[in-house]
Write a sequence for this structure.
């Protein structure tokens, strides 16, 4: 309550609320960004060598067969025409049909998107909880053996690409040492990844292992800073129990940087799932993007990348707003 | 891809204050990690070296002794599927996984058996009538399509006309160019007369070698219809790029077959993921393995890793109409450069057999007396004769679109060539571009891959001025007239003599360097039986899942 009163009294008349102003500005910028992204991605797909007809026919592409298919897929239209008809389709809610199989783009992307969202959310939530807890613990026991061990492990894991992490987990838990979890996520079409939760274990574990070190180190640094402040000193001198000092006094002041790193981790996950989905044959958006690129399936590439870009914009806005809300001195107008 | 996403993020968040630096820093660190990961991936895909002795590849079968057990659900894992895949019978041969699916649903008139010989399937016979310019196809009696319609002459005529549609020729059209489409005649319900524009004595074997483009569709079938074939399994579901499910055809014309209840074909993108899936028993069999994967699986308990010797080739292609290869001395020099046994050990982990620049080892008319060994001195001499005594530099266009081993082969050739003073610059073409208009059949020096074909079928596809896949642009009037003579004669021994003469021309003047025949590498769980080795080069014994059964 106090915070809100401060906010209200601190506002100059006639100006919009700073958070509202920020939101409006960010959303506007986000829309511009998405437009630019759509143009850039279209240009990039145009620059890709080959086209959908070559990709479909492969070695069997004798010239007559190739020309027939190119005509059928309307690949002989100009790039500008293709872009215009695509973007007007997206804006009116009809993002067109896949060049690869003629199915509506949305019905190609949707099931993969759902699977990927589950993967990112699970990894994000578990990774955040584990990372923040370990980070706070390390900060509390600063310079203890536990702190050092955690730091070294975090550094070591940071140096590993997720591909390596995934292979190690597969070798240990699925193929060579033990056979306790599936090595691949075979999700029959029409069902979802979560209908067979065992298949989620290794992909989620890989992503958690990859993001936890960042969250851990950021949380540790922010919490250490907070723990060294005067108000924590004061709280300790008052004789408050350690958990209360940490949870009520130190952590809330470390929230801003932690939220930023959580946001970053989510963004990273959105890109990192591409490799992880590939390794585990997990039918998500990363795998569908890889196959769309190799098929030169421009409408599906566009839709997928636009969704990813939208996700970036959204997470950026949310994490900025949350960080700002959590930092009283920065949310007041100057 | 990760890098691209990172770029979008940069545009998205213009951060205020102190977060900017750290965020930018962190993100670039993360993106760097992703790039590293991608690098690791490529390394993993590209590595298949090692130089162990060649393991035994003698054809063995997993044929059961007792009567095969009925029932069971087969799960097959394969790479190479994509969201552009279809169950259209006329597109069956575009990829191995496409053939795997089509082979369950559809059947051709003839196909190459696992011994690489012509085998009648839906045809009872295909015989010349008087001359090799007129053929009679007799259809098998008592065969029905999955929807109950019975198979006959109309379906054959419809299929041939669809493939040869002049406005929209399909993949199989390149095989059937001599067929006079307007003269197709239905004699009775089970007999079709096929006139040819030119003598076409190799008609049956050409049909058989490209069977996967020549599956028979029922009269009137269009792409909008449900898949409807005569195969051992019927269509149940299909999600391009993910999986397809087929169920037993209870009315199948081969009595007792198939044994399995269902066949599920699962699409993988990563060869390592397929291997892991097999080891953890998430699938029952897979093919297209690399030599290094094969070595691992051969020592994995519960897995039967089965290599097949085949007649499949992965030649280097030299354009005979462009310098320096328009000089036959250069072509022959390049062929003498190759150390074939070493080539097999280093590029295929030993899974191949030596070839002598001539195709089609299982053709009854194959001249097995032709041999060629590395001879650097002779190669240098030939190069000097062509005016390259001070060395020669060539560019080799290669691509992973050809085969996963193409780049390794290019690298090994480059090394071996340096001994003869030839510098090879490798130009790796992106997979999406190689078969496009700029490289394939345009490249002066490149590579390609073919499954086994009988000799005249291979010649028709690649070595004639009328061939659709002219990598070498070989155009030798004597050779072409020999091909035509071979198609005119009905006398087997005359034909053999002619083909021997053609192979001599291949051996002494041709544009292919064929260092070896490439083994097909498959692996099965030990609970599976009924599979065979296959000499054609298609994985999993031509995907004859109708013969497979489970032991328990």
């Amino acid at each position: 309550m106090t915070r809100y009163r401060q906010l209200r009294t601190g506002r100059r008349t006639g100006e919009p609320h700073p958070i509202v102003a920020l939101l409006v500005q960010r959303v506007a910028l986000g829309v511009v960004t998405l437009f630019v992204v759509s143009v850039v991605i279209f240009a990039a797909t145009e620059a890709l060598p080959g086209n959908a007809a070559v990709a479909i026919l492969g070695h069997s592409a004798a010239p007559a067969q190739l020309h027939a298919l190119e005509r059928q897929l309307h690949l002989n239209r100009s790039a500008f025409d293709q872009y215009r008809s695509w973007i007007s389709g997206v804006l009116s809610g009809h993002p067109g049909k896949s060049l690869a199989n003629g199915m509506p783009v949305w019905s190609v992307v949707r099931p993969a998107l759902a699977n990927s969202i589950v993967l990112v959310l699970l990894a994000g939530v578990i990774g955040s909880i584990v990372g923040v807890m370990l980070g706070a613990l390390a900060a509390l026991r600063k310079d203890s053996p536990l702190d050092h061990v955690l730091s070294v492990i975090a550094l070591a894991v940071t140096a590993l690409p997720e591909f390596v992490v995934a292979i190690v987990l597969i070798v240990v838990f699925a193929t060579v040492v033990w056979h306790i979890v599936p090595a691949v996520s075979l999700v029959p079409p029409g069902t979802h990844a979560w209908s067979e939760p065992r298949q989620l274990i290794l992909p989620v574990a890989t992503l958690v292992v990859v993001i936890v070190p960042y969250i851990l180190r950021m949380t540790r640094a922010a919490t250490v800073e907070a723990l060294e402040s005067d108000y924590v000193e004061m709280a300790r001198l008052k004789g408050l129990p350690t958990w209360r000092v940490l949870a009520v006094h130190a952590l809330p002041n470390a929230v801003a940087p932690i939220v930023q790193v959580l946001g970053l981790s989510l963004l990273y996950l959105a890109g990192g799932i591409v490799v992880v989905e590939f390794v585990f044959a997990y039918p998500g958006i990363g795998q569908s993007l890889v196959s769309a690129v190799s098929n030169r399936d421009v409408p599906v590439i566009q839709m997928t990348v636009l969704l990813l870009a939208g996700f970036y914009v959204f997470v950026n806005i949310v994490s900025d707003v949350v960080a700002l809300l959590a930092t009283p001195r920065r949310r007041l107008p100057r | 891809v990760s890098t691209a996403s990172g770029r979008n993020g940069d545009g998205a968040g213009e951060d205020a204050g102190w977060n900017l630096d750290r965020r930018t820093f962190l993100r670039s660190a993360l993106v760097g990690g992703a790039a590293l990961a991608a690098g690791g991936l490529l390394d993993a895909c590209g590595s298949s070296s090692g130089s162990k002795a060649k393991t035994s590849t003698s054809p063995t079968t997993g044929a059961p002794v007792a009567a095969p057990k009925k029932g069971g659900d087969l799960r097959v894992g394969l790479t190479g599927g994509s969201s552009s895949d279809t169950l259209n019978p006329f597109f069956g041969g575009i990829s191995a996984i496409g053939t795997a699916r089509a082979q369950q649903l559809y059947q051709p008139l003839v196909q190459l058996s696992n011994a690489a010989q012509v085998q009648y399937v839906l045809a009872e016979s295909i015989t010349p009538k008087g001359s090799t310019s007129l053929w009679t196809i007799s259809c098998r009696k008592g065969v029905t399509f999955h929807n109950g319609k019975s198979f006959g002459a109309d379906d054959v005529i419809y299929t041939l006309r669809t493939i040869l549609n002049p406005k929209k020729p399909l993949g199989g059209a390149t095989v059937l160019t001599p067929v006079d489409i307007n003269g197709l005649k239905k004699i009775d319900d089970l007999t079709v007369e096929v006139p040819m524009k030119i003598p076409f004595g190799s008609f049956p074997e050409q049909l058989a070698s490209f069977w996967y483009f020549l599956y028979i569709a029922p009269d009137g079938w269009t792409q909008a219809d449900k898949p409807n074939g005569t195969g051992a399994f019927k269509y149940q579901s299909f999600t391009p790029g993910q999986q397809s499910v087929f169920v037993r055809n209870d009315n199948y014309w081969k009595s007792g077959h198939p044994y399995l209840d269902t066949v599920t074909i699962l699409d993988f993108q990563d060869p390592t993921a397929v291997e892991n899936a097999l080891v953890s028993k998430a699938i029952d069999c897979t093919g297209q393995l690399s030599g290094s994967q094969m070595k691992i699986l051969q020592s994995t308990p519960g897995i039967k890793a089965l290599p097949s010797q085949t007649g499949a080739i992965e030649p280097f292609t030299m354009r005979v109409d462009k310098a320096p290869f328009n000089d036959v001395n250069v072509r022959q020099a390049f062929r003498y450069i190759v150390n074939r046994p070493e080539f097999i050990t280093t590029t295929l982990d030993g899974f191949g057999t030596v070839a002598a620049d001539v195709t089609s080892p299982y053709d009854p008319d194959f001249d097995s007396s032709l041999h060629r060994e590395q001879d650097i001195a002779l190669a240098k001499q030939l190069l000097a004769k062509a005016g390259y005594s001070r060395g020669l530099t060539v560019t080799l266009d290669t691509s992973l679109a050809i085969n996963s081993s193409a780049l390794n082969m290019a690298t090994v050739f480059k090394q071996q060539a340096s001994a003869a003073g030839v510098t090879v610059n490798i130009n790796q073409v992106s997979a999406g571009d190689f078969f496009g208009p700029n490289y394939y059949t345009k490249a002066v020096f490149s590579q390609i891959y073919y499954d086994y074909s009988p000799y005249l079928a291979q010649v028709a596809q690649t070595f004639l001025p009328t061939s659709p896949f002219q990598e070498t642009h070989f155009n030798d009037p004597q050779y072409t007239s020999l091909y035509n003579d071979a198609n005119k004669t009905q006398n087997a021994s005359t034909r053999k003599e002619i083909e021997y003469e053609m192979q001599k021309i291949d051996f002494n003047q041709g544009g292919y360097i064929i260092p070896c025949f490439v083994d097909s590498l498959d692996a099965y769980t030990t609970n599976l039986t009924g599979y065979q080795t296959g000499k054609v080069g298609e994985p999993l014994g031509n995907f004859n899942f109708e013969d497979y059964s489970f032991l328990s």
Q: What stands out?
A: Chain A touches chain B through 90 residues (CB under 8 Å). The CA atoms of residues 51 and 75 of chain A lie 8 Å apart. Confidence is low (pLDDT under 50) at residues 4-10 of chain A.
